[in-house]
Amino acid sequence: MIQYVKAELISTGTELLLGQTLNTNAHYLSQKLSALGINVYYHTAVGDNPDRMKEVFRRALERADVVISTGGLGPTLDDLTKQTVCKVMDLEQELHEESLARVKGFFIKLGREMPESNVKQAYFPKGSKIIPNNLGTAPGAIVEKGDKTVIILPGPPFEMRPMFEESVEPYLKDKSKSIP
């Protein structure tokens, strides 16, 4: 059984650093994790820069048992979270067909054709547990390797919060049962 003692939150997006977006995700997640008995030791915000993101994720994995990241799961070139996690954790990406079908379905409901760039949202670090997103096109994931876990969630709070409550919170409760 994995024991979570230390957590770190990483918020990605240059808009956070420029003050264009208020980081309500860190506030929300800190409260939720505290209620679960999981200690949040660090909050980090990082822009959409691949080198700085790698440095932040590496450092977080050195000092925390569980890292929860928000943002960077969209279809654009600056959405780099999954690729960064793969590089830092030495994992390959793989297509998750069910996620691709859900993203396509999202566009069908809108009566629009899915842009090719959205296929990117269905690729995940190999072996991930996928977290469905019922309100948007960016699924999340739980990535475990050794005694480390990275949980990646979308940035928009109205998508991130229900995903946390429906999938991540029960996962963390189950994994942290053995914490004294």
Account of the 3D structure:
The model has no long low-confidence stretch (mean pLDDT 94). This protein has helices at 14-17, 24-35, 50-63, 81-89, 97-110, 157-175; strands spanning 6-12, 39-46, 66-70, 93-95, 123-125, 129-131, 140-145, 148-153. The relative contact order is 0.19. The chain contains six helices and eight strands; from the N terminus they run E-H-H-E-H-E-H-E-H-E-E-E-E-H. It is globular. The longest helix is centred in the C-terminal third of the chain and has 19 residues, at 157-175. A six-stranded mixed sheet has the order 2-1-3-8-7-6, sandwiched between helices. Strands 4-5 form a two-stranded antiparallel ribbon. With 180 residues, the chain is an alpha/beta fold. It starts with 5 loop residues before the first strand and ends in a 5-residue tail after the last helix.
